Automatic annotation (TrEMBL):
<dbReference type="InterPro" id="IPR002226">
    <property type="entry name" value="Catalase_haem_BS"/>
</dbReference>
<dbReference type="Pfam" id="PF00199">
    <property type="entry name" value="Catalase"/>
</dbReference>
<dbReference type="InterPro" id="IPR020835">
    <property type="entry name" value="Catalase_sf"/>
</dbReference>
<comment type="similarity">
    <text>Belongs to the catalase family.</text>
</comment>
<keyword id="KW-0408">Iron</keyword>
<dbReference type="InterPro" id="IPR010582">
    <property type="entry name" value="Catalase_immune_responsive"/>
</dbReference>
<keyword id="KW-0560">Oxidoreductase</keyword>
<dbReference type="InterPro" id="IPR024708">
    <property type="entry name" value="Catalase_AS"/>
</dbReference>
<dbReference type="Pfam" id="PF06628">
    <property type="entry name" value="Catalase-rel"/>
</dbReference>
<dbReference type="InterPro" id="IPR024711">
    <property type="entry name" value="Catalase_clade1/3"/>
</dbReference>
<dbReference type="InterPro" id="IPR011614">
    <property type="entry name" value="Catalase_core"/>
</dbReference>
<keyword id="KW-0479">Metal-binding</keyword>
<dbReference type="GO" id="GO:0004096">
    <property type="term" value="F:catalase activity"/>
</dbReference>
<keyword id="KW-0376">Hydrogen peroxide</keyword>
<keyword id="KW-0575">Peroxidase</keyword>
<protein>
    <recommendedName>
        <fullName>Catalase</fullName>
        <ecNumber>1.11.1.6</ecNumber>
    </recommendedName>
</protein>
<feature type="region of interest" description="Disordered">
    <location>
        <begin position="1"/>
        <end position="25"/>
    </location>
</feature>
Amino acid sequence: MSQRVLTTESGAPVADNQNSATAGVGGPLLLQDQHLLEKLARFNRERIPERVVHARGSGAYGHFEVTDDVTGFTHADFLSETGKRTEVFLRFSTVADSLGGADAVRDPRGFAVKFYTGEGNYDLVGNNTPVFFIKDPVKFPDFIHSQKRDPFTGRQEPDNVWDFWAHSPEATHQVTWLMGDRGIPASYRHMNGYGSHTYQWTNSRGEAFFVKYHFKTNQGIRCLSSEHAAELAGKDPNSHQTDLLQAIERGVHPSWTLYVQLMPAAEAADYRFNPFDLTKVWPHADYPLKRVGRLVLDRNPDNVFAEVEQAAFSPNNFVPGIGPSPDKMLQGRLFAYADAHRYRLGVNHTQLAVNAPRATTAENYGRDGLMASNPQGRYAKNYEPNSYDGPVETGRPLSAPLAVTGHTGTHAAPLHTKDDDFFQAGELYRLMSAEERSRLVANIAGGLSQVSRDDVIEKNLAHFHAADPDYGRRVEEAVRALRED
Ligand code: HEM
């Protein structure tokens, strides 16, 4: 086989890749050295803006296979028959740290799935936690500012972290989750994924159901203690990436079983708490898990930058039969992601291989923009309607309409009979074993005791007291003991 030739980006052969061209031996460099200029200039442009959250991540391809009939609830084509397989790409991530942070940290994990369906790409952009810290998107930038590095100290600051939570009683449930054992998964393979939000499914008769997604790991849940994680984060900052990459390379393909909880749409208004509140789970006793299928990851990406860094998931990429609920957080996210992609990757990010539809083609009149490479051309018209056989609308909404009442305004969510911010945090605490509770209390106290202001500590303690008197008392004692040390 003949040796392949190194070329410039325009394909011309490169004569010397070790010595820059100089004016005479030992002289200054020449502007005419195209290879050197191109190499340095390209290098300067290798980085793009990192994701504002979930910057660190790992991805893999695989498939989703339907195992159970759900056609009574959704007419989504990729869920239309048992045995049906759909190609997927999944990106896992940590949330708060920037690129260069460590994987083994106490932080939620992202669990973003792109289903390349025959009716377009369906993105389910979830986390490894069934709930979230806040319930209104207007609080999201403040929340993230409080958890990421402080603009002056350049470090994550317990003062900021806990001050935000002091003002956000609705975070108590998720804080309890995060500070518990599941707050540090051992790897991406050993954790569940959740859609977290309530979404909407519509069946072929037009009947609507509200739905929550649960991907249960078939590897079993495994977590790290705070001490073990701190050690691992130092030894192998890429521990999650290493684990996923090597497992798939070894042929040990991780899988998750997808279950859903389904609520007939008519039951939402009278449910005892707001079913669109992202800080709450739906008890399984009310809405049991129904199995849907199995997701398997079996192929590593060839190029992490091209396929993982440039992957773009957006909660508003729905397919027929699936749509949004009135969950305010979800509604905010329907805007935020595609906007982030246009900033981070450009308007034509949907033409990148990892983001483009695979089982169908995109047919529309969007044109041009930076880095456009789509093939629509020649006599294809760039306006609609037209008389030239261009793609046309279907007239069929993707999902059922959502009922609305009342006036516009900055309203709190509609009140249901049991809508307080603490009872599910208390239920989660009471579900834990004695050892788990002790670790939870120690983790919270370890962070909260570092806060400099007493009023911030008091407000946080009040939340744990409201969740469960024993929980509050133990955290308070542990914080006091640490501060007296
Ligand atoms: C990433 C915004 C809440 C899961 C992102 C990104 C933005 C964002 C701007 C970066 C996107 C990119 O550059 O590609 C928001 C806003 C939220 C919110 C405004 C609340 C209003 C949530 C919630 C979840 C979640 C509740 C989980 C249920 C994720 C995941 C990623 C992400 C998994 C990484 C996606 C990937 O792997 O590319 N979020 N987010 N976010 N968010 Fe959110």
